[in-house]
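User: Fold this; tokens only.

Assistant: Input:
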Amino acid sequence: MKNLFLKKSTFCFLITISSLQFKAQNIYTENFDDVTNLTSQGWIMTNQSDISLSSWYQGIPEAFSSFEGEPNSFAQADPNSSNFGNISNWLITPDISLKNGDVISFYTRDLSDDRADRLEVRISPNGISSIIPSGGFSDLGDFTLLALSINPDLTTTGYPSIWTQYTYTVTGLTGLTICKIGFRYFINEGIPPIINGETIGIDSFKIDRENLDRIDFTNSNLETFPNPVKSILNIQTRENIKKNYVFDVLGKKTTTSPISNNSIDVSYLKQGIYILKVITEKDKIMVTKFIKE
């Protein structure tokens, strides 16, 4: 009787969503069409370099054109933020509600490989109460979560000289959290003659949230067994798995055990139907469903 119930439930579930597939919901976009309007939209610019001059400004196409949009449609910073000494020039977003799994992405580049540039992306989980850096070059405020560091070793070839996309998947938050994200142009010893620091641009900043209102279970390259499963779910695929996620039928992500020998422990799950999503080493996404007994 129990197996019959599971089969009927599975059939109804597949009828309901068999034609659906994963999609991402965009929750924030900034293309930097008008940098002068950023502060009126809640952005914060604070230059904590040893001697503060210019802050972030509208892109200058004579240096390089934007990734997309009008040629000057990007935000730019350069060593003129300090005429000597260390550079710490911040561009900070308005309050944005984030949760684990959200994907932050943007494009960036510098002018050439003649000098070394560096950019950090830092997050404060305190929203409107965030402590904005104000104490000079080394002050981080409460932007202590380092999400990305581009060219941390300050090598001349470590920062891309063509538009390159960088992404960060949010982790470490406890539920939906109001945050601020800080871009920090961060250069040591930018002293005449300038050794480090040339100029950088940022474009096409986005935050996307994956949801499960569209799911496709037709991927034949991903198989699980046994199914239904009581404790250990074995996973078969033609590619090596980098990450795995388990969702319930409402799209809520569950606590996921790490993959070990192409198996995961699902004994902690309640009885029901679940969705397994895996990301391979080639960043291919595959999805299937399984039943927990």
